[in-house]
Amino acid sequence: MSPILPKILRASAGFFAVLLLLPMPACFGWGSDGHRMINRLAAEKLPAGVPAFLQTAAAIDEVEYLGPEPDRWRSMGEPELSNSQAPEHFIDLELADMVGRLPRRRFEFIADLYAQGLMHPDLAQQLRPERVGLQPYVTTEVYQRLKAAMREYREQSAARKDTKPVEQAIVFYAGWLGHYVGDGSQPLHVTVNYDGWVDKENPSGYTTAHGIHSKFETAFVATNLKAADVAPLMTPPLLVGDVFDDYVAYLRRSASLVQRTYQLEKLGGFDGPGTVESKQFTAERLAAAASELRNLYYTAWIESGKPVPERPGTTPASGKPSAGL
């Protein structure tokens, strides 16, 4: 049992009643301006050693353009697409942590959520995966797409073949990945309090009204933040060890700032020009995303040069994996 579970189960019935009445989050992390800024900075700040095509102006412009791409898939003109990928933009960690340590694979997490719903039928609806969110899973999966494409680029280059098609795939995956990494740095994308405080216990008097989410990540960023504010706050490049664990830790750093976000809102920090503190806070969050994204790009490139492990249970004759893989 997760150590947070007893705390959750002691929460007021009113808290979960409110959650059940809320629609699935329709949040658009950072808006177009923030996502484009994050992607561009990550692409511009790549360390030496990555393929030269990734450092061209054309590639950087394309990666920037693709920053908001998954939000373009959230139109009611494509209702099935919008519905299926909406949970990939967020994760409510207060609920996700009921499964204990987050499993590394999407469908194991979904199965664990359903198991918790059976154990706690009063929470079953709120523990549906589309309500809890799948943010770390889509991020890891798109990262692995990028790494696989980079491996193909290495192979095509070594064989002296035309690499233009795979270069285009790499740029697309890099831009796509950036969206989710950007979402993960926004504290309101990792909490049940994503657009107004919903916990019955609210001793600090945080706003319960909808609107804080878009006011912070879209209007405030578009009006007050520039790349020049963010770039100096980026960390030096580094290789990521375990990508899933590192990314979950990154999400938890964002979660630790949920109350700070509400405190700044309470002080008018996201109204108009905001305050020195709110502008610094927002720039730090954008820089955290750009740094994490650049590190994932760099790590994918280095990892793509390593031998691919053999599938457990695969026989050379059949090439088929054992059951369960």
List descriptors.
disordered N terminus; 325 residues; 16 helices; mainly alpha; globular; 56% helix
Topology overview:
Blueprint: H1 5-9, H2 13-21, H3 31-44, H4 57-65, H5 69-72, H6 79-85, H7 93-96, H8 106-119, H9 129-132, H10 135-158, H11 164-185, H12 212-224, H13 227-230, H14 243-255, H15 258-266, H16 276-303
Helix pairs in contact: 3-4, 3-11, 3-12, 3-16, 4-11, 10-11, 10-14, 10-16, 11-16
Largest sheet entry: none
Total strands: the figure is 0
Distance between the termini: 26 Å
The helicity comes to 55-70%
Judged by helices, strands and strand pairing, the structural class is mainly alpha
User: Which ranges are low-confidence, i.e. pLDDT below 50, for 5 or more consecutive residues?
Assistant: 1-24
Q: Strand share of the residues?
A: under 5%
Q: Gyration radius, to the nearest Å?
A: 21 Å
Arithmetic mean pLDDT? 90
Number of helices: 16
Broad shape: globular
Task: List SSEs in N-to-C order.
Answer: HHHHHHHHHHHHHHHH
